[in-house]
Amino acid sequence: MTDEMTAAPALAGKVVLITGSTSGIGLGMADAFARAGAAVMLHGLGDADEIEKRRNHIAVTHGVEVTYNGADARDGAAMEALVGVTVKRLGGLDILINNAGVQHVTPIENFSAERWHAIQDILLNASFYTIRAAVPAMRARGWGRIIQIASAHGLVASPFKAAYVAAKHAQVGLTKTVALELAETGITCNAICPGYVRTPLVEGQIRDQAKSHGISEEQVIRDVLLASQPTKRFVEVAEIAALAIFLCGESARSITGTAIPIDGGWTAQ
Questions:
Q1: What CA–CA distance (Å, rounded) separates 210 from 228?
Q2: How far apart are CA 94 and CA 143, in angstroms?
Q3: Can you spell out the DSSP letters for 161-181?
Q4: Is this prediction's pTM over 0.85?
Q5: SS3 helix, strand, coil % of the chain, rounded to 5?
């Protein structure tokens, strides 16, 4: 039997908290991290029975501990508490992935203050609260990985998405500051900036953009969304998960404070 066949999974013994992981990118990452041997804290919204099916499937398929918490991402205290619950249930927290997302597409003059604040709470403030809560335990261990699932919209802008673009740019700034503060601790902090991925969130954007522009959903995909991506295809969830797992390995210990596009060439233009 070769060493490769007997080697432990790359992240065996690690614990990962992935916010917004009951569907879409987050769920795909949860499955990938479990496959790599990590215990997983799922978090997010959805039907309780469906979430339990997904949780059980990942746990049974990969033979790791997987648990779930439905903390309200709009509530900073609840998100801080989520970190404590993860440590209590799974024995620690080595990897924090802030992935929870929400979108609203409308011209700035029609953008309600309520929508603005909800998007900032879910995208930016939740990241602040979870990072603040997670860092002390990571410092004590002398190792940690913090990953923000930002967006190409953390690097460039698009019209009709004022709150989302502002929050994602702020997430990238937060990433850089945290990386600098923790540079000598063994903890890295990076942002992954995907282009358009075919997820439930993007499906909602397709419908909203079609309504805003008065065109068909097919035209939105071709002429609005993928017009920005030179490859003319959606980014795959598996590609994002693979990059996140790489950033959690020892080969990536010198990668910190970066915003890494995975966007089909969008931000190269």
A1: 16
A2: 7
A3: -HHHHHHHHHHHHHHHHHHHH
A4: yes
A5: 55, 15, 35
In this structure, are strands 66-69 and 95-98 parallel, antiparallel, or unpaired? unpaired
**Cα dist. 111→47, 116, 118, 121, 225 in Å?**
29, 7, 12, 16, 21
> Mind listing the domains of the chain with CATH numbers?
3-197+234-268 (3.40.50.720)
CB atoms within 10 A of CB 40: 29
Query: pLDDT of 92-118, one tens digit each?
Result: 999 999 999 999 989 999 999 999 999
Catalytic residues: 164
- The pLDDT tens digits of the residues spanning 68-97 come to 999 999 999 999 999 999 999 999 999 999
Tokens of 118: 């909800």
State CA 164 to chain mean position distance. Answer: 14
Residue 235's closest CA among 3, 28, 68? 28
